[in-house]
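Thread title: Can someone regenerate the structure for this chain?

I was given the following input by a collaborator and told the matching structure tokens would be attached. They weren't. Posting the sequence so someone can regenerate them.
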Amino acid sequence: MSYDLTAEMNYKLKQLDESCKMMIKAGNDKANAEYQYRTALAQGILHHRAENMPVTIINDVVRGNKSVAKLKLERDITETTYDAIRESINAQKLTIRVLENQIAREWTTGENGI
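Best answer:
Regenerated them for you:
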């Protein structure tokens, strides 16, 4: 039985390693999407400010621009992906801890002959 748990533990550790690699890529994607959105937003604000648009409506007008709104959507999607991977990693770590405890119990009961 301990061999099955050890094999499952090794499988879960490999999954965790892959998830960590995915998180690196997702983190880079998230940062890039934030950069794209923020720079487009700033450019739009500067553009409308130069045209003497009232300051009170510039943010709404710029955020309502299709290209800026699309960049915000992409940013939100990459952020959601990043958060989902982080939660998956946390769940995988919990599963690994449970397996560690099960393996430790088997070793303890095996040593005592119970």
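Helices lie at 2-50, 55-64, 66-112.
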